[in-house]
Amino acid sequence: MNSLQFPLATQDWTLGKSRALALQAAQVKSVEALSGALWVTVSGSAQDFFVKHGETVTIPCRHGQVVIEALGDESVVRIGQHAESMVSNSQTFAHAAYVSVVCPVVRGLRKAADWLDPSPVAARAH
Predict the structure, then answer these.
(1) Closest of 57, 36, 35 to residue 47, by C-alpha
(2) What's residue 115's pLDDT?
(3) Which of 44, 33, 6, 38 is nearest to 20 (CA)?
(4) CA 121, 105, 80: angle at the middle one, nearest 5?
(5) Which of 46, 93, 107, 122 has the most CB within a 10 Å radius?
(6) 50, 11 in Cβ contact below 8 A?
(7) Could you give the CA distance from residue 49 to residue 47 in angstroms, rounded to a whole number?
């Protein structure tokens, strides 16, 4: 990918109510609220950002983590990424998506399974 031709790559995410997405700051150039409102925290920065529908914030550093949380109802966020980080850090971005989206779903399913069958060990003993 030619970074002069495509200086910024983007990805859109839908975050449910009070859901969060954590990414490496080196990957994130900007955060835009396509709908809803967002709370953006950047480790290494003394300032949090509150981004309303239609607003964009530029991430001030390229180290640490960026945590984006939906405020209120569901929000759609557009992540602007540095083109060079898209190529070199695609596995890191996929891992962040896995941790932010898949892991909470699995935890919820485990809680539901425990609620439905609170003592699976005792049932296997008989």
Answers:
(1) 57
(2) 77
(3) 38
(4) 155
(5) 93
(6) no
(7) 7
Helix runs in the chain, H state only = 83-88, 90-97, 103-116, 120-125
- What DSSP character marks residue 43? T
Helix (H, G, I), strand (E, B) or coil at 28: strand
Q: Which among 46, 68, 65 has a CA at the least distance from the CA of 57?
A: 68
Reported as a single tens digit per residue, the pLDDT across 25-78 is: 888 889 999 999 999 988 877 788 999 999 999 988 878 889 999 988 889 999
Radius of gyration of the chain (CA): 18
CB of 96 closer than 8 Å to CB of 42:
no
Q: Which residue(s) pair with 11 in the sheet?
A: 79
Total residue count of the chain as it appears in this document:
126
Contact at 8 Å (CB) between 32 and 15? no
Distances (CA, A) of 126 to 17, 114, 116: 42, 19, 19
